[in-house]
């Protein structure tokens, strides 16, 4: 019973980290694209 609970908690923790990484990566890409658009419009 304890092992199952610990494995479940570990799996949820790992999944939340992976989801967080994808979210941060997406925000970084959006910011980068916005910066590139600003640079292109300043020429």
UniProtKB/TrEMBL annotation:
It comes from the Bacteria. Pfam families: Entericidin. Keywords: Cell membrane, Lipoprotein, Membrane, Palmitate, Signal. InterPro entries: Entericidin. The keyword Aminoacyl-tRNA synthetase does not apply. PROSITE patterns: PROKAR_LIPOPROTEIN (PS51257). Residues 1-19 form the signal peptide. Belongs to the EcnA/EcnB lipoprotein family. This is Entericidin A/B family lipoprotein. It comes from Halomonas koreensis.
């Amino acid at each position: 019973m304890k092992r199952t609970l610990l494995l479940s908690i570990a799996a949820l923790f790992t999944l939340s980290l992976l989801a967080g990484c994808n979210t941060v990566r997406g925000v970084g890409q959006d910011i980068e694209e916005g910066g590139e658009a600003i640079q292109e419009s300043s020429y």
